[in-house]
Specification:
By secondary structure, the protein is an alpha/beta fold. It has 12 helices and 6 strands. The radius of gyration is 19 Å and the shape is globular.
């Protein structure tokens, strides 16, 4: 597929939600009523994730799902593993459903004019050149602010579409929604636990992302950790040459962490040398600053 019109790719991660004061991080979820309910029901996966958070004071739920899977394979006999896999599968989907319900009930009563102006700045090239379109991908389950973007800039968006690559949680849903949770196919896990691999989930919208993202001539990446569980989305993106990248990180430490993540995905020096790359501090835009 080829397009002749100029195309900007905007990729949004959880830091975008956090900037708008939505409590949508994994740490927020682990402290939530929905997660506590899992613990009350004896969900051993949730218990393991809670123990990791208590030990480290933070947790990447997806990475720990993979670690839990891997540890099962290493520590159990074959028969125990088969029996425990049935339990693990049920507990994994219960965890995913609890996350969906938690996200669906997250609201923010605070507006963020700085972020609104920043988003408008991202669209300025499309205002000046009516041929330029904006392709937006969000890794977030929450939909409030990305829907606002969609409504404001509908005419400037590529195929008039906004891609929530891992699904979305409906507002105030009383039943779980089909969100995607899990690990990259190359992450540490048991090879018998394919049900935790995001690439194999029928709800993953990876195809329209991978079909379009490399067609862009410049990129804006905001609030993305570019973590291990999303390697398949960022490796082809960061392996390009001759493109422009504006990559936001929260504070100096956040920018260092992003550079470290890029180094684990591709050669950082080559990436910076063969592309126009700007690392930008997003701290001033956060409503919680």
């Amino acid at each position: 597929m080829q397009i002749s019109a100029p195309l900007t790719g905007i990729i949004l991660g959880n830091g975008f939600d956090i900037a708008y004061n939505y409590k949508t991080s994994y740490s927020h979820f682990v402290d939530s009523e929905q997660f506590i309910e899992l613990l009350k029901k004896g969900n051993s996966l949730a218990k393991y994730i809670k123990e990791v958070k208590n030990l480290q004071n933070w947790v990447d739920v997806e990475i720990e799902i993979g670690n839990f899977s891997y540890n099962m394979q290493q520590s159990l006999t074959q028969l125990e593993f088969i029996n425990q896999t049935k339990i693990f599968k049920a507990e994994f989907f219960a965890l995913r459903d609890a996350l969906s319900l938690y996200i669906s009930n997250q609201t923010s009563s605070l507006s963020n004019k700085k972020m609104d102006k920043l988003v408008e700045k991202w669209f300025e090239p499309a205002f000046l050149d009516r041929d330029r379109k904006i392709f937006i991908t969000s890794f977030n389950y929450h939909q409030s602010d990305v829907v606002n973007i969609y409504n404001r800039f509908y005419d400037h968006m590529y195929e008039r579409n906004l891609l929530q690559i891992h699904g979305q949680a409906d507002f105030y849903s009383e039943t779980p929604c089909n969100i995607v949770l899990g690990v990259d196919e190359n992450n540490r896990r048991s090879p018998e636990h394919n049900f935790i691999v995001k690439a194999y989930d029928k709800n993953t919208k990876a195809t329209p992302y991978l079909r379009t993202i490399l067609l862009c001539d410049n990129y804006i990446i905001f609030g993305c950790s570019m973590g291990e569980t999303d390697l398949r989305y960022f490796k082809p993106l960061l392996s390009q040459k001759g493109k422009k990248f504006d990559i936001y990180g929260f504070g100096d430490d956040g920018l260092i962490e992003i550079k470290s993540r890029i180094s684990s995905i591709c050669n950082l020096d080559s990436f910076i040398t063969y592309n126009e790359v700007n690392f930008l501090n997003s701290e001033e835009y956060s409503i919680t600053r």
